[in-house]
Amino acid sequence: MISSLAIFALSLLALVDARPSSSTAYFDGLRTSLIDNGLSGLWNAIAVANSTDSGPDLLSKLYYNDKFTIYAPNNAAWQASELSQPPANDDLVSLLSYHIVQATLNSSTDIAPIRHHTIAFTELRSPTVDFPGDQTQVIVLETAVNATTGQDVNDGSVLVRGDNWNATSAGDQFTYENLYIQPIDKPSPLLKTLSQSGLAISANLGATSAISAISSANLNDTLYQQCHGCTFFIPVNNAFENATQTGNYTGLDDGSKRNVILNHVLNGSVVYSPELTGGSAFVTAAGMPLIFLTDEQGKKFVSVGQYRATILRSDIPVSNGVVHLIDTLMVVSQNNHQRADDAASSAASAADSRTTTTNVIGIGGTAAPATSTTSTATTSAATGSQTGSSAFSTRRIDIEGVVKVSVISMILGGMWL
């Protein structure tokens, strides 16, 4: 009798055998598939990235590993972003990395409905982002909304959420070999987002008062430099204005103000909205309990002490964690340093084991999109293989035989801003 391990091995071999026998053949087919679907700009970016130091390592994963979704900017998106001739540098590789998800996501069945998020881990990792363990930056997805009715479109349309931008699906999703490919209408302003350390991005979202309070409390280094993967519950400006009018916050001494701010932070834990289930409890960076709550209508809250704050906007990726905007400054000035230290230590240990083996949070369904080539569509999964041979990790992929492109030597400058 064949053991279950042997069956698994045979299945794995069958998958590998179904793949083109060489990377050149694989990328030749990918080039054809992208161009046939109006994505020649993406192919050009891939070819240019292959000439960089870090690009071949990223591209090798597409062939040697399994199960990826590419959110692929269409040609108009590259042109509008002045990136139709992208520079051959690591910034381009970072941009491509952020559009590659470590699992197959079906746009019609696997994306969360409006007011909910699917959180998918991309190939963008350190040193571009500062996360614990081997965690990578995430892409935030939700079902597109009809602008007139405000309801789900229900046609496989997807939104990619950023800080103050959205990218929208532009055309049907298709497959090539082990890839799900979803055209979108713009490259994410990735480097704009990630170049703003920590919470600075919140200033663009009506949270300038919080940024000023952090600076006044001498917490910049703590939250920007020393926080390697944190969750920030950031009050919007109105929340600070209300607290100022009552005197609850302005009347505190500097140490108490510092505690108030730290009671809005989870140190060492990057917690996204699908993980915030009703009744779940955490310990803040000041050592006080933070409770997550929901009401019968699905409205979400966080609570510290006697305060309860509504989450106004969730899952805003920043370079060292995630921001959730809230409507109330929770003026809790108590602390428990020992409990805070214990929680941070526990979070660090958990982060070391939480690598990229859980690659999607908040998905469902397994139906496959239409296949545009003779590829085999993979099914939706919450895990993706990271077992590609290290022998290939530094070898340039042979795609130069597929198409010759000029290497454009230019500096990004303010292009990304």
Description:
The protein has 417 residues and is α+β, with helices and mostly antiparallel strands. 29% of the residues lie in helices and 18% in strands. It has twelve helices and 16 strands. The strands form three sheets. It has a seven-stranded mixed β-sheet with strand order 10-9-15-14-13-12-11. Strands 6-5-4-3-16 form a five-stranded antiparallel β-sheet, with no helix packed on it. It has a four-stranded mixed β-sheet with strand order 2-1-8-7. Strand 13 and strand 14 form a beta hairpin. Helix 2 (23-36) runs antiparallel to helix 3 (40-49). The radius of gyration is 23 Å and the shape is elongated. The termini are far apart. The relative contact order is 0.17. Mean pLDDT is 79; it is low at 1-17, 373-395 and 402-417.
Annotation, overall tally of beta strands: 16
**What integer value in Å does the Rg equal?**
23 Å
Number of helices: 12
| Structural class based on helices, strands and sheet pairing | alpha+beta
CA-based shape? elongated
Mean pLDDT: 79
Q: Note the gap between the termini.
A: 61 Å
Which strand order do you get reading across the main beta sheet?
10-9-15-14-13-12-11
Uncertain runs: 1-17, 373-395, 402-417
Mind summarizing the main beta sheet?
A: 7 strands, mixed
Strand content: 15-25%
Q: Would you list the SSEs in sequence order as H and E?
A: HHHHEHHEEEEEEEHHHEHHEEEEEEHE
What proportion of the residues is helical, as a percent range?
25-40%
